[in-house]
Amino acid sequence: MPSIARPSIPAAAAPHRSSRERHADVVLSGGAGGPSAAVARDSGAERCERTARPPLPDNPWSTPSEAVRLVLRGRTARQALPIAAVVGTILSAVNQGSVIASATATGDTWLKVGVNYAVPYLVASIGYLAGRRVTAQRAPDALEWQRYVAAFHDERPAVTERLLARADHSPYDWLTEPLHGTSGPVLDLACGSAPTRDVLPHARWLGVDSSAGELAAAARAGREPVLRARADALPLGTGSVDAVCAALCFPLFAPIGPVLAEIHHVLRPGGTLVALVPSRPAPHPTGWLRWTGLMRALGIRSQPWPTPEARDGLGTILREHGFTVDSEQRRVFTLDLSTPDSVELLIDGLYLPGHDERHIADAKRRLAGRARPGHRLPLPLRRVVAHLPA
Ligand SMILES: C[S@@+](CC[C@H](N)C(=O)[O-])C[C@H]1O[C@@H](n2cnc3c(N)ncnc32)[C@H](O)[C@@H]1O
């Protein structure tokens, strides 16, 4: 069973420290040395170290349909054909040899001969597949998720922004609509490559993220200021921001309570929180089937998240943590998947902890090969607008 990739804990993911110590980690893009210099210093300490794991066999499979596909594509033939040839010939000679030799064979005789070869072929195929099953992973714990997400974003910065750029409308425009009248500072929590900087050009904007790779991408795009910190340890003063926006990050926070406590701390009383979260695909003819097909190809039932209840249940969680929820809206965007590149980008943008890279690469190749002009995938998102009591 392949184990979860275990990158080392980034500096920003170190255990909780005093606020003064935390301030020492802050990387302000406008500060001395600039973000790239600081980020480059940090990333050296964040090299991934992978645990030793058994090599993956050729032709791995995890669902029965994948196993059947391997048989139909002849992937088991190299092992099964010689066995079927020997066993089938012996069985046919013993059981049907005299009938065939006396030239009295009927259709029934030849059917039996066929079965003599088919059965050992199938048995040998099952033997071949038995050693290649990739079993479902146990769920990673919070620390494993943290390490996985840190390595994921350092290895593929801006992946979320690039993927959402393929949507029919900008989810970032939708997210930030309620903030256009905000005159005070706006904090983009877990800003990634900072796409909201461009859609809030006149705001006193500040981006925070724990990934050095993502912040370097933001800096390359000229999106400033950004600082490197964890969402549950923000180096900002009490009530220092007027609004917080958070795109596609709440289901990543595990546990979510300390992050909400930190938002309470930095958001002024009466301040606004706008959040965008993935919403479950509805069981509706095309959309649901396409997500199901995608998940099946990847050998999973649904996309894993460390805090899945913070998707459609985010409004409830915010109420439980003292926020007043002003609105909750679900909107289905459409992703263009008409080219192999777009399919590969979609799969690159999914969190798949514990999945063997070769298995993912195989699914990616198959799905990318099916990309056709006009192929689209519904992308349901939920926007929650809330505020702190004044
Ligand atoms: C799906 S990406 C979204 C990025 C950006 N908001 C966007 O929409 O393009 C999630 C982001 O959350 C960041 N992140 C995850 N856990 C974090 C934490 N505990 N503190 C700060 N950032 C975190 C990741 O580094 C990543 O940039």
Describe the structure in brief:
The protein is α/β, with parallel strands linked by helices and 390 residues long.
What does this structure look like?
There is one protein chain. The protein has 390 residues and is α/β, with parallel strands linked by helices. 43% of the residues lie in helices and 15% in strands. α2 packs antiparallel against α10, α4 packs antiparallel against α5 and α14 runs antiparallel to α15. The protein is elongated, with a radius of gyration of 27 Å. The two termini are 52 Å apart. The N terminus is likely disordered. The structure holds S-adenosylmethionine. The site of S-adenosylmethionine has 20 residues, from α6 and α7. It holds the Pfam family Methyltransf_11. It comes from Haloechinothrix alba. One of its GO terms (biological process) is methylation. InterPro entries: Methyltransf_11, Methyltransf_Superfamily, NrtS-like, SAM-dependent_MTases_sf.
Give the second-level CATH assignment, the architecture of the largest domain. 3-Layer(aba) Sandwich
* Nearest-integer average pLDDT: 83
Main sheet: which strands, in order across?
A: 3-2-1-4-5-7-6
Helical content (DSSP H or I, runs of 4+) = 40-55%
Instruction: Could you tell me the CATH topology label of the largest domain.
Output: Rossmann fold
Number of domains: 2
Number of continuous helical runs: 15
Tell me the series of helices and strands, N- to C-terminal: HHHHHHHHEHEHEEHEHHEHHE
Structural class: alpha/beta
- What summary fits the major beta sheet? 7 strands, mixed
